[in-house]
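quick q for whoever's on today - can somebody do inverse folding on this one?? i tried earlier but teh output was garbage lol. tokens:
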């Protein structure tokens, strides 16, 4: 069986920008279902925040019966919840849209996965209570800066509808892979919203405010919104649940190969349910065969898949992968184009040449 990478050589993050820092996971070289913190993709709107975590407190106020401020020690002492979650930037694969969409030109690596531990948000809310009129919870991060479309300084803030906030697996996390969350990924506390694109999982939580109306912050109503039309805002709707998707990890696009037996490898994931099936095409989508799922298909996490390909004939090949989830969602042949380039999930494809 021929390999597509050289053992013993370590991968690095793929830099997209440095200020703010945006770097991709080298997803083609991730060989297990847990991504080390140093290879977890980095997505920022602003420079990293400055605060002293030893004096860190989390206030919850607004439409609650009893406003309360929690210390880290109090949060650590509460019953914990541990979940394996894939976090995918909603702009993942933006570079592949046609026509092109403006924004960070992510390729396939704005996605990572690991094990998060924290306390269910609903557990914290049991201490404050929630007034019946409450509709949303607003999460404000410590990261702030100036938006390109405004001369005002703003914090990164997002809201969740009360129903999503109260789901048991919506957690305030303090550990990643059995270690404190790395600072660049939200230490000391990060919201984790399984099944939704990662803009919802606010880092460096500064405060939680319960409100009785829709939150109108720019990262809720301007960004992270699907705009189907290029010229106007008609038909817009919010970015929420992760679309069913797959990525071919090996071989690499435009790789030169020789004849022989190859181990084609990849991952597949979805925001609702789990992955039921991954198919592969070796002839540009004319015929499809079922891949072997090599890891357990779990809620919130990706599944690894592979296919043994014996190639005897020289020439150029277009390899495609297509995932189906337990809700019968299937990757489309073409993505849903939108002006800001969110939610790309078209059938993945690469080209290789056998010499």
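ok took a stab at it. sequence:
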């Amino acid at each position: 069986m021929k390999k597509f990478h050289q053992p013993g050589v370590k991968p690095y993050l793929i830099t997209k920008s440095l200020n703010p820092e945006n770097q991709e996971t080298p997803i083609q070289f991730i060989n297990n279902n847990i991504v080390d913190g140093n290879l977890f993709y980095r997505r920022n709107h602003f420079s990293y925040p400055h605060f002293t975590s030893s004096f860190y407190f989390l206030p919850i106020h607004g439409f609650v019966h009893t406003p309360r401020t929690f210390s880290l020690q109090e949060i650590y002492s509460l019953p914990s919840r541990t979940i394996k979650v894939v976090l995918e930037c909603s702009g993942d694969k933006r570079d592949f849209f046609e026509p092109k969409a403006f924004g960070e030109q992510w390729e396939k690596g704005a996605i990572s996965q690991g094990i998060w531990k924290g306390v269910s948000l609903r557990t914290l809310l049991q201490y404050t209570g929630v007034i019946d009129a409450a509709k949303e919870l607003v999460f404000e991060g410590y990261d702030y800066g100036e938006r390109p479309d405004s001369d005002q300084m703003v914090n990164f803030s997002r809201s969740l509808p009360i129903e999503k906030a109260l789901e048991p697996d919506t957690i305030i996390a303090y550990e990643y892979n059995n270690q404190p969350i790395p600072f660049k990924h939200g230490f000391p506390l990060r919201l984790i919203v399984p099944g939704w694109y990662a803009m919802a999982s606010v880092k460096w939580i500064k405060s939680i405010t319960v409100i009785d109306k829709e939150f109108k912050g720019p990262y809720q109503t301007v960004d992270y919104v699907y705009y189907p039309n290029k010229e106007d805002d008609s038909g817009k709707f919010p970015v929420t649940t992760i679309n069913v998707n797959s990525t071919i990890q090996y071989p690499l696009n435009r790789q030169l190969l020789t004849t022989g037996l190859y181990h084609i490898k990849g991952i597949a994931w979805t925001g609702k349910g789990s992955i039921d099936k991954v198919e592969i095409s070796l002839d540009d989508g004319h015929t499809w065969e079922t891949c072997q799922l090599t890891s357990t298909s779990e809620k919130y996490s990706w599944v690894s898949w592979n296919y043994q390909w014996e190639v005897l004939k020289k020439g150029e090949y277009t390899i495609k992968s297509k995932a189906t989830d337990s809700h019968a969602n299937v990757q489309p042949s073409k993505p849903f184009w939108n002006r800001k380039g969110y939610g790309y999930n078209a059938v993945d494809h690469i080209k290789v040449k056998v010499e």
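fwiw The chain has a mean pLDDT of 95. also Helices lie at 72-77, 121-128, 162-165, 218-221. so keep that in mind when u check it
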